[in-house]
Design a protein that fits this description.
Layout lengths: L1 H27 L1 H13 L2 H7 L1 E2 L14 H8 L4 E3 L4 H14 L7 E4 L12 H6 L3 H17 L4 E2 L23 H16 L12 E5 L18 H8 L1 H8 L4 E4 L3 E2 L2 E2 L4 H11 L5 E3 L4 H8 L4 H11 L4 E2 L3 H11 L5 H17 L12 H6 L4 H12 L3 E5 L11 E5 L25 H9 L4 E5 L8 H6 L13 H13 L3 E7 L20 H10 L4 E6 L7 H6 L2 E4 L7 H9 L66 E3 L3 E2 L3 E2 L5 E9 L5 E11 L10 E10 L4 E8 L6 E2 L5 E2 L3 E8 L5 E8 L2
Parallel strand pairs: 1-10, 2-3, 3-4, 5-6, 6-9, 12-13, 12-14, 14-15, 15-16, 19-27
Antiparallel strand pairs: 7-8, 11-16, 17-20, 18-20, 20-23, 21-22, 21-26, 24-25, 26-27
Helix pairs in contact: 1-2, 2-15, 3-14, 3-15, 7-8, 8-10, 11-13, 12-13, 13-14, 17-23, 18-23, 20-21
The chain binds beta-D-glucopyranose.
Length: 764
């Protein structure tokens, strides 16, 4: 009797909980819920599993869809969406097969890596983060969404928000750098930009935050490698940007290739269900990264059937390319390894995404050929790209105000990137038309007109090893091996000798960063340093324009080259934007979102590190028995947040409205900023806080706010930050997000190293 009562009460409780959960879903959008209910009642198990399948597009061509293998699968109802199909006509063609020739006429979702723009390509994400301008980043995502949706795409595999503190990892180029606060702001900006306020509009894209989670912490900076870290670090330093994207309403999440706590992300139930859905309340769908389920076999988790069942149970909804779900889930269902509820849940989430995108109402919503003709690569978009690119460049050095250059005389333009349109866009330029990319040479010509002469010499290849050359360029060599490196340098020197100034455009090739582009030596590649030395020897002033997708080790360059402008990869309009900055049409205002180390041995080197029990005071040399190296100081070449301007910004004293606070009080910190130089310009004023004593160790400083302010030459502004206990919160030993009373150092400055500081006490 007792047992019966217990059993009945438990059943009732489960029923109530289930109905409650369902009701919440129904209430969110009853129309969608009942529509999908109805549809799912008609679906066979194989059709449900088909929705979870995201094959690659293969070699599908317009007009051939019906005959292809993919076409056959679409008709059978075995495909939920496709990845990286390019062009509105192709997509329309494929969609037609789905909605006219499959039994239930369910439309497909079309995803693509629209990472930093579409055909109008913006600077790489690391560069965009350097702008510290969230409205501008949102604008790039908005334009990308307009162009991609005009070309048939409704889903992008962006933003990539992996915190990266190891510049050997090539994918540092795809994210916002090393800081969780900045990373979270950037994540929100992308999501809002892509998704707008209504996903069903024909010019908004569903975003996909990736790679969940911790992909940027790959050991040794080697792509796809193992990650392992404490929960406390995870929660405080690596997870916040993913969470910010979820909070901003991101429609989908992509799993990462790596393991988290010993279990590959795609099969990690703690990550995908306990954390993502139960703690964070994510209600979109989870897609794996490319063949990530199949790769779980290589990770040592079992055969394809085992890992596919594991992924579904963990909370993965869609299988990218590997077809593990498609080929094994029905068997696993029969064998009791997965349940129909698990398949239903995943299928429902995919259908909901399609519903939200408005695809059931009009499967061709994103397939208007007219839009493709008028809304892609427009003059407006190109103009925006030019201005945006110029605001991402970081001026690293400018001795004796060598920059900006005068528009006159003879300019030697030298280096492997000086006249190289194919390398302007940077990695992940899937929809870029490189013929539209403006080279540096072209940009200089555009800005200079007949005011100055440009004399060009290549000077060096990217690298001198032809095998490596092919590796950094998808198998096609970009080098000129008809001449020796010495001959190329000699030519550049002779050109430089006849000129007034040298602009050396050097750095990495576009594909030296990005996926599977890890480097163990992150110095300037090939003979480029030798080229720079030879150019310096001419006695002419040398400006180094640096293309890179990662921090480089450049101690020698910093010491010897008078002016260094880091332009990352600026996208389609690189050349014009670079010329705008070199000749002072635009004053550079970018700040580094990553630390540049002196050498590879210092890695990982990041500004918000812990203090240790034996800290070396900042800026000091070797001390026996303190935490340092025998052969190099602990300092970076350039700290996080660093970047110069053609003008000079002077910070006044830091003023706090009080120094003793209680829990419901806020602190107002003000500082005056004066543009004391000769140019108008923008400065990123940065707020850092240090929590001096905690129940767990706390970083030496953490970015907690920033403002990008524009000041005319001679102008002074008062910059104000309001700080509340919210800004002091962190995850403690119980993973509880809270703040602790005590002393806090408030710091404000133009980078993470040079700050004005004052201390306050906050009680609870
Ligand atoms: C990358 C993802 C990308 C996917 C689809 C993978 O190799 O890791 O970032 O979205 O391919 O192209």
């Amino acid at each position: 009797m007792k047992f019966r009562i217990f059993f009945l009460t438990t059943c009732l409780a489960i029923h109530i909980a289930f109905t409650y959960a369902q009701n919440a879903e129904v209430q969110a959008d009853p129309k969608m819920h009942f529509f999908i209910d109805d549809l799912m009642k008609k679906m066979t198990i194989q059709e449900k599993i088909g929705q979870l399948n995201l094959p690659g597009s293969g070699d599908i061509t317009t007009g051939q869809t019906t005959n292809s293998d993919i076409g056959k699968k679409i008709k059978e109802g075995s495909v939920g969406g496709l990845l990286n199909v390019k062009s509105v006509t192709k997509i329309r063609d494929v969609q037609k097969v789905a909605v006219e020739e499959s039994r239930l006429k369910i439309p497909l979702i079309f995803g693509m890596d629209v990472i930093h723009g579409y055909q109008t390509t913006f600077p790489i994400p690391l560069a965009l983060a350097s702008s510290f301008d969230m409205a501008m980043i949102e604008q790039t995502a908005r334009i990308a969404a307009t162009e991609a949706t005009a070309d048939g795409i409704c889903w992008t595999f962006s933003p990539m928000v992996d915190i990266a503190r190891d510049p050997r990892w090539g994918r540092v180029a795809e994210g916002a750098g090393e800081d969780a606060f900045l990373g979270s702001m950037v994540a929100r900006a992308y999501v809002h930009g892509y998704q707008g306020d209504d996903l069903s509009k024909n010019n908004t894209l569903m975003a996909c935050v990736k790679h969940f989670a911790l992909y940027g912490a790959a050991e040794g900076g080697r792509d796809y490698n193992t990650t392992d870290m404490s929960r406390i670090r995870m929660y405080n330093e690596y997870l916040p940007p993913y969470y910010a994207a979820v909070e901003a309403g991101v429609g989908s999440v992509m799993t990462s290739f790596n393991e988290v706590d010993g279990i590959p992300a795609s099969g990690n139930r703690w990550l995908l269900t306990d954390l993502l859905r139960d703690q964070w309340g994510f209600n979109g769908f989870v897609v794996t990264d490319f063949t990530a389920i199949n790769e779980m076999t290589e990770h040592g988790m079992g055969d394809l059937q085992t890992v596919s069942a594991m992924a579904l149970r963990a909370g993965t909804d869609m299988d990218m390319v590997g077809e593990g779900f498609l080929t094994t889930l029905e068997k696993s269902l029969k064998e009791g390894k997965v349940t129909i509820e698990q398949i239903d849940k995943a299928c429902r989430r995919i259908l909901e995404a399609k519903y939200k995108l408005g695809l059931f109402e009009d499967p061709y919503r994103y397939c208007e050929p007219n839009r493709a003709k008028t809304e892609i690569a427009t003059d407006d978009h190109f103009n925006a790209a030019r201005e945006i690119a110029s605001r991402t460049f970081v001026l690293l050095k400018n001795e004796n105000q060598l920059l900006p250059l005068a528009k006159k005389g003879k300019i030697a333009l030298v280096g492997p990137l000086a006249n190289n349109p194919g390398n302007m866009a940077g990695m992940w330029a899937v929809a870029t038309d490189h013929r539209q990319s403006v080279s540096v040479w072209q940009g200089l010509k555009n800005v200079l007109g007949t005011d100055a002469e440009i004399h060009y010499a290549r000077g060096a290849n990217f690298v001198e090893d032809p095998a490596l050359d092919k590796r950094i360029n998808y198998g096609a060599s970009v080098g000129d091996y008809s001449r020796t490196p010495e001959e190329m340098i000699a030519e550049a020197v002779s050109v430089a000798s006849q000129c007034d100034v040298v602009v050396a455009v050097v750095g990495e090739a576009a594909e030296m960063s990005g996926e599977c582009s890890s480097r163990s030596d992150i110095s300037l590649p090939g003979h480029q340093k030798a080229l720079l030395k030879a150019l310096l020897d001419t006695g002419k002033p040398v400006v180094m324009v640096l293309f890179t997708g990662r921090p480089l080790t450049m101690t020698w360059e910093q010491k010897n080259i008078p002016a260094i402008l880091n332009v990352w990869f600026g996208g389609t309009q690189s050349g014009n934007a670079i010329a705008d900055v070199l000749f002072g049409v635009v004053n550079p205002s970018g700040k580094l979102p990553v630390t540049f180390p002196q050498n590879v041995g210092q890695i990982p080197l990041y500004y918000n590190h812990k203090n240790t029990g034996r800290p070396l005071p900042e800026g000091e040399g070797f001390h026996k028995f303190l935490s340092n190296y025998l052969d190099v100081t602990n300092d970076p070449i350039y700290p996080f947040g660093f970047g110069l301007s053609y003008t000079r910004f002077t910070y006044g004293n830091l003023i706090l409205d009080r120094t003793q606070l209680t829990e419901n009080q806020s602190l107002t910190a003000t500082i005056t900023l004066t543009n004391s130089g000769n140019y108008d310009g923008a400065e990123v004023v940065q707020l850092y806080i240090r929590d001096l004593v905690g129940s767990v160790t706390r970083p030496v400083k953490e970015l907690k706010g920033f403002q990008k302010v524009f000041l005319k030459s001679g102008e002074t502004k008062t910059i104000t930050f309001i700080i509340t206990p919210e800004d002091l919160k962190f995850f403690n030993d119980d993973l509880k997000f809270d703040w602790e009373p005590g002393e806090f150092v408030i710091m404000i400055g133009g980078n993470s190293r040079d700050v004005k500081s004052a201390t306050v006490t906050w009680t609870k």
